[in-house]
Amino acid sequence: MAALGNRGTVTEASAFSPDEDAQKLYSAMKGAGTNEATIIEILPHRTIAQRQKIKESFKRTVGKDLIDELKSELTGNFEKVVVGLLMPAPVYDAYELRNAIKGAGTEEACLIDILASRNNAEIRELIATYKKEYGKSLEDDICGDTSGMFQRVLVSFLAAGRDESFKVDDAQVAKDAKDIFEAGEARWGTDEVKFLTVLCARNKNHLIQVFKDYQKISGRDIEESIKREMSGSLEDVFLAIVKCLKNKPAFFAERLYKSMKGLGTTDSVLMRIVVSRAEIDMLDIKSEFLRMYGKTLGSFIKGDTSGDYRKILLELCGGEK
Asked: What percentage of the chain exceeds 90 in pLDDT?
């Protein structure tokens, strides 16, 4: 029941008793009103695997579904975070994608955040989980809601075919850097397929080298060129690929910063990243956030949220520091 990663702020609770936790949660919801403090005390301090054990225990000892009970007792963003915490990682990803696709308009940011940052095994598990949970093909749903080159990049992600080896072929690096340059900066108009071929298929080490070579040829950073050559969701998705390859925690730190700076908060982004990264790499995301913006992630969350929603997010992030 260990955590998903080893750089998370959420780690396995020692002396863990799922039956005890289930009973405490039941007592917190029994009668009039709910004791939110008990929920905040328990759920952010258990791994996803431990929370599944609590769900099983709750069903066995109370005869009800824990998620259904919490949904009937809680509201708003606090409810959304709590429900998300009780889902295994691929189920939560599938749930987020489903919500982003259905209804009026598509939340492209959600498709990009999830699909650009997951590895091949995670994508394959996500596709299977989506089918199981919703009886639909994730690719069909995405294709029904997106179009053009942006759609083609997302379909490429879903093929889960990125090379995940560590080998770097210098001749191929030089060719890829030249191909991207000639597909963008060196011509009128942009041949986006060349960008897709290189950015969606090659391994991380190879691409880091391609970006260095590209800078030498073009005199520009690859991110700068993408901003000049692309626009809209296509620009966003290619930038996300590059940023995740260079430094994934920094990518998430920037997404968190943008979700909170200025007027209003994009809660969907804030919740999704905190819930999904808490036991994977939140320690690294926090240090990148501090390095990039000179303030702690916790201080931003504290200043931008309120009530139990604020409390549970701070617990998941390991406090204000």
From this structure: 88
